[in-house]
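Researcher: Please predict.
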Amino acid sequence: MKYTSIGVVVLFSLLYFFAFGQPLDGASVGNYNYILNYNFPDHLVYLDVLDRIEAESFTSFDLGINNYGIAYFYYVISFFGSTFFYENVENYTFVINSILSVTQIFLLYSMVNSIGGSISPWFIVTCPTFYFFGAMINKDSLVATLFLLIIACTLNKKYILSILFLISICAIRIQFMLMLMIFFPIIISRCTVRTKFLLIYLFSAVIGVFASNLFKIVQLDVEGGLNSFVDQMNVEYYIGSLVFNWLKIVRYLIIPFESFDKIIVGDEINFLEIFYLLSGIYIFYNFARIFILRNKLIGAHVNSEILIILLFCWGYINLLVVSPVTEYRYFLMLLPLVIIFSAKKTVKSL
């Protein structure tokens, strides 16, 4: 069934690529304007950075926003058929992203087998990120793959490899420095499970307060609302992240269900909002299973591998809430990982 699900994912990815993987931000179809691939602007930015790498024209701005990590990845890959890469960059990146998706699926099956479970191919085939992140240059496919590799190595107690992959992922998303320096040592420590969950939350809150006061990021938040309120409480009373970070976590679960009134507006169909809605349903279902089984998950006889996976999920979520901006696309990286909680025997064994 593993290879069947991989074949179906590749086929659907190909269909998605032909429909939405071309360098357009919108196209007129029938009576509606279909808003196409979400990451086309980022795709153009990374292509520009690739040109700068070739010309050895580095800028502090690009280094500061961490664009060179993913650009260097594609720069190295471009050596294997450089002419084809630059003439057919969308096709080339689709192949790379498909390979990364297949790698993620193999890792998921491997991890589930290691904890005595089995995945229904349905959960693999319906995971939206395999398709959404399959087109054009983006950080998400590579980051999701590296994150799964980190967890797989940790489950096998290959901590040196985990650290090496964490360093690699930091080169693409600098936020993972928090995972490397604080959360990962907590996860592999000998503390109790409850203590690990609490420590991750507390360190995330402390760093959120520190960041708010050091960089005054409250003025950078263009969203207003909860994020601005938390940052303001951090700056004025030093308690915003500690008291309200859990609300920012809940906010990530609510965002996709705000898409109902944004899917069709006037003569536009926004496929990004459709994707957010589908992914929200998908992740909410899996998180609901965790909530329903929460007492058994914290029990003495729980499978230790499952707890490690949960701790990585918890660490990643707390990494996200340090940011002053709620970017749901980053949260979607958890979708392949939560497939594990749909594993048949895993749930029964708990």
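Model: Residues 62 and 68 are 7 Å apart (CA to CA).
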